[in-house]
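We now fix the convention by which a protein and its fold are recorded. The integers have meaning only within a learned vocabulary of local backbone shapes. A complete example follows; check for yourself that the lines match position by position.
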Amino acid sequence: MEYGREHNFPQGTRLFEEGSVADRFWIVRSGTVTLDMRVPGRGAAIIERLGPGELVGWSWLLRPYIWHNSAEAETPVRADEFNATAVRTAMNEDPAFGAMIGNWVTSVLAYRLQGTRLRLLDEYALHGGVVLTSRTSGA
């Protein structure tokens, strides 16, 4: 791997913290990583679990390169770790490579957004929520 290296994280290791500089990313080979967000007055809430083959971290690709959440090794994790600056430079130097990486990260984000929407619908159904929109049918 030209831009990356294998890295092992013991269970409980924090990979990155929300609000810090996003200077690397990982692809999980084995184990589970949780993504969490700070909830004022409540601590951290787990929002996602990622396993083998999945991308950990996308904030490295979008300015201002600051993590939007935090990540922790839920189990021992073996992952390929990539230097974000080196990958961004390669993307700029090779437009085809850049498009491929950009499309890959976009597809990951779209998949996770859909998962988030489904979880929100589950919460809505669980709590018998009220529709809080002014949109009408067919809008």
